Model the fold of this input.
Amino acid sequence: MVQNENFFLENKPLFSGKIREIFNYSEDKLIIKTSDKISAFDFVFDDEIPSKGKLLTKIAKFWFDKTKHIIKNHILDDSMLTSVNPEISESCLVVKKCKPIRIEAIVRGYISGSAYNQYVKDGMVSNIKMEDGLKLNDKLETPIFTPSTKAEVGEKDENITFDEMMNIIGEEKASYIKNKSVELYKFAHEYALRKGLCLIDTKFEFGCDNNGDVILIDEIFTPDCSRYCLAKDISNQDVEFFDKQFFRNYLKEIKWNETQITIPEKIKNIIISRYEKVYLMLIDE
Ligand SMILES: Nc1ncnc2c1ncn2[C@@H]1O[C@H](COP(=O)(O)OP(=O)(O)OP(=O)(O)O)[C@@H](O)[C@H]1O
Ligand SMILES: [Mg+2]
Done:
């Protein structure tokens, strides 16, 4: 039982991802504890951003609930965490133990980030031929699915084509994941727009539960795994990103040399206030 915060002192995580620690709770349940760490370019920084873990957890919970009519997800009742200090419990999720499918399911509704860089080079994104004349952050006629492999901690994810994804996990699972990913993206894009936010692109993870069903796991539509901006700003060339892109841009600006740094207070404050703004805009009635 999770009686109090000692659970997290007495139990070692089963494993640790870049940002999350995964604890075994029972035969079929895990507790995912999201830290205040930030990663960028597949590098995890030691310096932390206070409250980030709680905010990511709140945003993921919000979206898991809003999208449960589209696909089953790993969220379970977490009332047994009530005796734990809110500082800890608010950054925890109780989830179904699943076998992760080692693919990142990426959907893009706009041409941004690394997809734009590839488009400028060869007119393609993944192996999809794109229309001519697209500018940075332009909306695509229909959202595209551009999967990548999910690397182990310390390794880099690699973009793959949908055909390669089918070879890795089989045609049926690959098509199911692609279709559900696009459906989830379209739903959330429309929802976010009504709240004044533009969901530019996003990444999902899926896993197999013990019935063999493919369900949604990890996090969903958080500013760590999605690009957001204010809807009114999407056509500005110097759009302000309300997600990790702001931090990536900062690292480029300071010509970061892939070593640990102390993140300036000012930068931490901007990151956390933007993540908070995304949450507040989403829950606004
Ligand atoms: N329900 C679940 N069952 C089993 N494993 C899960 C479940 N939900 C998430 N996971 C796994 O927990 C880990 C969470 O790790 P975390 O998000 O910190 O880093 P990461 O996924 O390795 O990196 P990044 O998110 O930057 O790509 C991932 O390996 C993910 O596949
Ligand atoms: Mg993750």
